[in-house]
Amino acid sequence: MESNPKFEASQDLPNFPYARFAELIGRWCWKSTDPNVSPLPPHIIFDQARAYTSAILQGDPDSAAIIKASFKQLFA
């Protein structure tokens, strides 16, 4: 399975307090320190982590920083 490289114009988000906005309208939101890193599930297995890493390495310009932050999440 191949992936498409990151298309900056559609994936870069403006600096906006999304979590605060969610709270203002009565919703809950996961607060992340890095908008490029999605939260990993606590029950992730090795094969899933390997596939995640492989997908990110195929064309994302921020791949090294994303992988580093993701592994920090796992061991935090």
Given helix and strand content, the structural type is: mainly alpha
Please trace the helix and strand order, writing H or E for each element: HHHH
**Distance N terminus to C terminus?**
31 Å
How many structural domains can be distinguished in the coordinates? 1
Total strands: the figure is 0
Task: Describe the protein in words.
By secondary structure, the protein is mostly helical. The protein has one domain (8-74). The chain has 4 helices and no strands. The protein starts with 7 loop residues before the first helix and ends with a helix. 1% of the residues are buried.
Put the structure in a nutshell:
The protein has 76 residues and is mainly α.
Please tag this protein with its features.
76 residues, mainly alpha
